[in-house]
Amino acid sequence: MSDNNVQIFDTTLRDGEQVPGCKLNTNQKLIIAEQLEHLGVDVIEAGFPVSSPGDFKSVEEISKLIKNTIVCGLTRAVENDIKVAAEALKYAKYPRIHTGIGTSASHIKYKFNSNQDAILERAFEAVKFAKRFVEDVEFYAEDAGRTDNEFLARVCEMAIKAGATVLNIPDTTGYCLPSEYGAKIKYLKENVKGIEKAILSCHCHNDLGLATANSIEGVINGARQIECTINGIGERAGNTALEEVVMVLKQHPYLNLDTNINTQHLYGISQLVSESMGIYTQPNKAIVGANAFAHSSGIHQDGVIKNRETYEIIDPKDVGVTESAIVLTARSGRAALAYRAKNVGYELTKLQLDEVYTNFLNLADQKKEIDDNDIHQIIETSTVYQQIISA
Ligand code: KIV
Ligand code: ZN
Fold first, then answer.
1. Fewest beta carbons within 10 Å, which of 26, 39, 180, 322?
2. Is the pTM of this model over 0.90?
């Protein structure tokens, strides 16, 4: 891996699947895992094996199926969790155990009724125990976003001392501002002894709509892995959306950070995950929403028809969308109508367009959107129809 490569750790099948009512069966998970490998993710977090026999089986089957990608299983800092995860991962070509514990004052006090020294000890022991089974051990400091940086650095040192290969710094509650999260990663890069032995990983939740911005600040400040889900699905407001962080890095090449993702598969896998889980993405969702490349105002349509780049920063083909859409509504102008009429076989002169456009506006005022059938009807009932078809 080069210094500029950002590893993409997909947790659609673990953190993403924690969405209420969206449980996937093993077969559905296998189909998604195969497509994630095809997409080019570096790590597939396949599940939390100790949580249920179904999750164990899914992690085991995904481990058998996947050939070139790291397969990861989640655990708490509990020996039995780790043993069970190791068992589920035993067929994986590249297995990773992801273990960890809450580190914020609130988690230490309310979840564990414990103290910082005991948490340091548990972090060390969990990583050391996981190393008995696999070489690749990722440690997470849950609620790192609200953990005091000095203590977080001590936790990271303990995990590295025990052999952690990756340090996950989750903003579990989606609380941090981008500047704050970026500063946290920078602080760890500069203050954790032995940090060169491990990769720092961003795992940001979206409670304030900042997950993508926080992950990007994280990699700008030295992290080299982003944990994310397809369509940003996940608990509460969800996780960082894979398609967003990947496209931010691709569209800003001067950041000099790249990923191994084949972006042309983004739209297809977004559809697959949304259909399998029964969660439909909002139309205005960045990159993969139905309207992400649709233009409906007359001014924008005129610009896009002249040159796509006037209103689009991404070529839709780069993310697997066939083409930009010119949507006909009462806000559309003549250029859009002429363009769509041409697509269905009518080449209109300026005078013909004037008449057809008046009829179009009358209908568009009554309907939300004008489709191809409407265009045929408007043209066929116009007084210039014979001229148009005999031209
Ligand atoms: O959000 C979080 O802290 C997590 C950890 C369990 C990695 O998902
Ligand atoms: Zn999470």
1. 322
2. yes
